[in-house]
Amino acid sequence: MADGKKVFTDSEFVELQIERYRPRYLKDESEFKKCTTNAKRMNFFLNNEKEVAHIKSKIQQIKPHVTKSDVRASELRKLGNVQFQNKNGKDALKLYTQSLSFAKSDEEVSFAYGNRSAALFGLGLYEECLEDIDRAFKHGYSESRSAKLFKRKEDATKAYSSRKKVVKVKTYEIPQSEMNPSIQSARNCIEIQTNEKYGRHIVASRDIAIGEVLAVDKPYAVELQADISSDPFLFCCECLKNCYNVIPCRNCNEALYCTEACKAKAFQNYHKYECLILPYVEELLGIKFDFWLFSLKITLLAMTEEKNDETMYRSDRYKEISELEGHSNADPPEKTYVWTFLSASIFILIKEKIKIFKEFEVFEEKFKELFLYHQQVLKVNNVTIFSWHKNGKFYTSVTGLALYSLYSLFNHSCYPNTFWNTCGSTMVVRANLPIKKGEQCFISYGPYFADDDKTERQERFQTLYRFTCECRACQENWPKVTFSPAIVDRKFIKQVIKKLTENQALPPPRYILSLRKGLEIAYGILDGTS
Ligand SMILES: C[S@@+](CC[C@H](N)C(=O)[O-])C[C@H]1O[C@@H](n2cnc3c(N)ncnc32)[C@H](O)[C@@H]1O
């Protein structure tokens, strides 16, 4: 709880809004149900002058939260100093980064970099320390204090060069000779097929062995998630890379990047617009909902992207995103009503603050359509990215959301023959069962048969994805396995495998084999040996 306010999850918030707007919905129900496209739904609210005037006046009354302030930066830096003196290096690092994100003048920016370099040095992050020292000097670090910084630079350079080389975890890359000729992110062992039952789906174009890589997919876009368990000060907003010395946007204090290149790319493609509404969203709606911001980002990318008519299925192009499944007419109308109303409010905010439609005048109607459509696409296709930390024990935290074009073509099975993991935001899909040529390659959208009862799983698939799963585990109603697959503990894995092998009522040996192989690969990746 922050500032005594209750913090809602996104779905709690939407449920609450449905309750709140129910009387209004019941009045509008018959007219709203006539709106069969996203643009018509948006216009249901946006053509209502009284409504628009009310939202505009609400926006005018908002006092945007402060994004840059040297006073705040200095306060945070001093708090950082206290933590640093108390040898709480990580807390100091976080406060110095916060200070940096608020800093306005070159002087305050240089102090924040300078102090953060000390915290980085203390944590043994010498490369990052040296980068921050250079940044401090670049921003005119005061000459009277620079002796300390020169000394730190010398020490960090020495420590860095004498340190044992750290093996960096590398993502698998598909060798040139194995690249798929028609799918940008795939290996030459799969193809895209379409049928009535499954829509588009992925099929093995040759036999695939356990552990083989099927795809290395890069996201079309990502959204850093300010989840309670994650730390937004340690990840790049553009690529979700873990980074201890992030650099802030020059205008706002919310976007932080791992490099100048990521910062420039984001600014050019979407952040120069997004940045202008960030200080208002939470005040306007009562929550800063990741899906809205993510949808806005994708809509902006769609508007700014250069045309590319190549026939290959690409992961770095909007065309593929524009064709993803969104089940646009499948939500209960009451939910769609509330969702659209809130999106229309954001649309008015965008129009008021970004003035984007001066630049893209002809796109206004398209923008409304896409803004809602992308939210629907995200509900069906978004992937939550976790990051692994090794701090005594392994643990994971949510880093962000990502939208992948190729991953989005894999259908679900509760007993899947592939699994995925990520390195940064790059997704690697591998086989965890042998897959015969012509067989469909399935992935799990969350629950495996071992996690939840069939009824629970089927309910979830119907609500979120609108299909009935007919995988073998569902057809044969395999029992739930009473363990949580906490693959973070080797002793625990051994117990799990033992239990699975002993109990004849449990799944077939193929599954055990694949579980073991999957875990070995996962460990290999974590250990940096794979
Ligand atoms: C991420 S998309 C997968 C690609 C999709 N088939 C397409 O044509 O774009 C998810 C959607 O695919 C369909 N789907 C996924 N798994 C399925 C399955 N096992 N059986 C039938 N439909 C499935 C559902 O409509 C679901 O909402």
UniProtKB/TrEMBL annotation:
<keyword id="KW-0863">Zinc-finger</keyword>
<dbReference type="Pfam" id="PF00856">
    <property type="entry name" value="SET"/>
</dbReference>
<dbReference type="GO" id="GO:0008276">
    <property type="term" value="F:protein methyltransferase activity"/>
</dbReference>
<protein>
    <recommendedName>
        <fullName>Protein-lysine N-methyltransferase SMYD4</fullName>
    </recommendedName>
</protein>
<dbReference type="InterPro" id="IPR052097">
    <property type="entry name" value="SET-MYND_domain_protein"/>
</dbReference>
<feature type="domain" description="SET">
    <location>
        <begin position="181"/>
        <end position="446"/>
    </location>
</feature>
<feature type="domain" description="MYND-type">
    <location>
        <begin position="236"/>
        <end position="275"/>
    </location>
</feature>
<dbReference type="InterPro" id="IPR002893">
    <property type="entry name" value="Znf_MYND"/>
</dbReference>
<dbReference type="GO" id="GO:0008170">
    <property type="term" value="F:N-methyltransferase activity"/>
</dbReference>
<keyword id="KW-0489">Methyltransferase</keyword>
<dbReference type="GO" id="GO:0042826">
    <property type="term" value="F:histone deacetylase binding"/>
</dbReference>
<keyword id="KW-0862">Zinc</keyword>
<dbReference type="InterPro" id="IPR019734">
    <property type="entry name" value="TPR_rpt"/>
</dbReference>
<dbReference type="GO" id="GO:0008270">
    <property type="term" value="F:zinc ion binding"/>
</dbReference>
<dbReference type="GO" id="GO:0005634">
    <property type="term" value="C:nucleus"/>
</dbReference>
<dbReference type="InterPro" id="IPR046341">
    <property type="entry name" value="SET_dom_sf"/>
</dbReference>
<keyword id="KW-0808">Transferase</keyword>
<dbReference type="InterPro" id="IPR011990">
    <property type="entry name" value="TPR-like_helical_dom_sf"/>
</dbReference>
<keyword id="KW-0949">S-adenosyl-L-methionine</keyword>
<comment type="function">
    <text>Protein-lysine N-methyltransferase. Monomethylates PRMT5, modulating its transcriptional activity. May also act as a histone methyltransferase. Plays a critical role in cardiac development. Acts as a key epigenetic regulator of gene expression during cardiac development via its dual activities as a methyltransferase and negative regulator of HDAC1.</text>
</comment>
<dbReference type="GO" id="GO:0008757">
    <property type="term" value="F:S-adenosylmethionine-dependent methyltransferase activity"/>
</dbReference>
<dbReference type="GO" id="GO:0032259">
    <property type="term" value="P:methylation"/>
</dbReference>
<keyword id="KW-0479">Metal-binding</keyword>
<dbReference type="GO" id="GO:0005737">
    <property type="term" value="C:cytoplasm"/>
</dbReference>
<dbReference type="InterPro" id="IPR044421">
    <property type="entry name" value="SMYD4_SET"/>
</dbReference>
<dbReference type="InterPro" id="IPR001214">
    <property type="entry name" value="SET_dom"/>
</dbReference>
